[in-house]
Amino acid sequence: MQAVNVTLNGEKKTVYIEGGETLLDVLRENLELTGTKYGCGQGACGACTVVVNGEAVKSCMVLFRKLEGAEILTIEGISDGVHLHPIQKAFVDADAVHCGFCTPGIIMELYALFTKNPDASEEEIKKALNKHLCRCTGYLPLIEAAKLAQKYYKESLKEV
Ligand code: FES
Ligand code: FES
Fold first, then answer.
1. By the 8 A CB rule, do 107 and 52 touch?
2. N or C end of the chain, less CB within 10 A?
3. pLDDT in tens, 44-94
4. Cα of 56 to ligand 1 centre, how many Å?
5. What is the Cα–Cα distance from 106 to 104, expressed in whole angstroms?
6. Is the model's pLDDT at 160 over the cut of 70?
């Protein structure tokens, strides 16, 4: 067994692993954080996207043992437990959550994008969305939701 120390959704944690587990394995199986989805397991679909040290990463492609000291944020960690995060709210308001399988990964992708650059261009938003497969929406609702998410996120910055 190997101990790995991380900060997960704002809490310091020591996780004991065998050694070959991916971040996605550990989130879903060791920590029961099943909001992060297993789609392809090969880095192609984006369903498993979380934020590590401020960057959107595909958690199926990251070995957990390499994350000593990392700050990890998952979909479970972005709301305050009562109110949805502005990006989550935008996806609901824009009716862009159909089966919802792709939604957490896309929201975490946009979270990383907007926290780094709240003024991201439409091209940058589309580039971020391009990393994600969605079988349900036909993508246009995702673009609209992402633009609304950016608006809500920027408004939330003014409220702080
Ligand atoms: S499950 Fe990780 S990219 Fe598809
Ligand atoms: S809403 Fe079903 S896969 Fe995107």
1. no
2. C
3. 999 999 999 999 999 999 999 999 999 999 999 999 989 999 999 999 999
4. 12
5. 5
6. no
Are 116 and 137 contained in the same domain?
Answer: yes
Confidence bin at 159 (pLDDT 50/70/90): confident
**d(CA 57, ligand 1 centre) in Å:** 10
Residue 93: its pLDDT value, please? Answer: 98
Domain ends where: 25, 54, 77? 77
Are 11 and 67 part of one and the same domain? Answer: yes
Token pair listed for 100:
């919802």
Q: Compute, in angstroms, the gap from residue 22 CA to the centroid of ligand 2.
A: 23
Nearest to 67 by CA among 114, 37, 26, 110: 26
Are 60 and 28 within 8 A, CB to CB? no
Helix (H, G, I), strand (E, B) or coil at 22: strand
How many angstroms separate the alpha carbon of residue 97 from the centre of ligand 2?
7
**Residues 153, 99 share a domain:** yes
Ligand 1, residue 39: give the atom nearest the CA: 1
Q: What is the extent of the structural domain holding 143? A: 86-159
The CATH number given to whatever domain includes residue 7 is: 3.10.20.30
> Does the beta carbon of 72 sit less than 6 angstroms from any atom of ligand 2?
no
Ligand nearest to the backbone CA of 95: 2
